[in-house]
User: Fold this.
Amino acid sequence: MNDAILVLNAGSSSIKFALFPGDAYPARQALICEGEIENIGHVLHFIARDGTGATLAANQPRGTSHEDALAALLGWLGVRFERYRLIAAGHRVVHGGASYTGPVRIDARVIAALRALIPLAPLHQPHHLAAIDALSKLHPELVQIACFDTAFHRTQSDLATAFALPRALTAEGVRRYGFHGLSYEYIADALPGIMGAATADGRVVVAHLGSGASLCAMRGRRSVATTMGFTALDGLPMSRRCGSLDPGVVLYLMQQKGMTADQVSHLLYQESGLYGVSGVSDDMRELLASRQPAAREAVALFAYRIGREIGSLAAALGGLDAVVFTAGIGEHAAQVRRMVCEGAAWLGVALDPAANAAGAPRITRKTSRVSAWVIPTDEDLMIARHVYETLFSRTAALESPQRVRRGAPAKSPEVL
Assistant:
């Protein structure tokens, strides 16, 4: 029987999963299967694919809850891949606070700490915990490991993470944390094999653009600054989140409009961003296809704010050598990339329109002083590697030294 590692990314209405062999350092080409269970809370819909994308299963399991969804998943894996024995499950957890700067085995103490962070990530943290609790009931002996989106940004300086607030609040943990760290960590590991070690270890801004969106400034493939802060509400406008906002707006809404804290929270997390500006959709594909002026304005605002933040992060880096686009919008929306790159021409970005339209790895001209790239991210693989390293740290160090010693040139990635 072969060992396997299960990767889980739980949301409010879905659980995404991936299964990797657990007897060697995880690689994308070794993926056993992946998929998701959607519509949690209603009629479940289960779909699984193999490593080539071919459908392995598509059905409607019984039940409605996270526990029902995981029970269906474990049951299917046990039948379809009976030759594999689960040795651990890795969970994407958005917020690790100040305490967790790397992957950690989950126990009662860790769960209590993660529950205390729910107010800082209300859209994500409760659902990660629901999956952890459900898996603990269904498979109590299985090792579970939390992998944090905040951990990658632990290398930022105190100046980069500080708010201009009283020191007592800073001491309590009111500071900038940053998110999308698992995506940024994957990109950081992949950079040398794609753009060469010299550029990869230079001044790079990575744009993770999806329904949640942020930018990260890297030097030496380490996080120097990022656009998200105390919560995942900060920074760029997102599908339904407002991004950076004058705190006075919150005071106005509460003091002059009579809104409660819960109402303001719902407005900023659920009714703002691309959806709020456009009044049409929170989906970039629909906005790009729409002829509605408000839809075009939402796209323009998104690109404008990305451009402003790239300028800010270039200042934090003391210059700019490369820009990387990743995640759903970053990888697939050529028009958004074009708008951002054209807005960054003053920094030395010279777009190659044909390469951009094709989604080529490099989308700038050979003469461009600052290069721009499209690199698909792989958070599932990053989590699987973290799980493997946590279980077998000495073996992992021997098999993949670049993952243990970031800063040294990495080998060409086996994915991409």
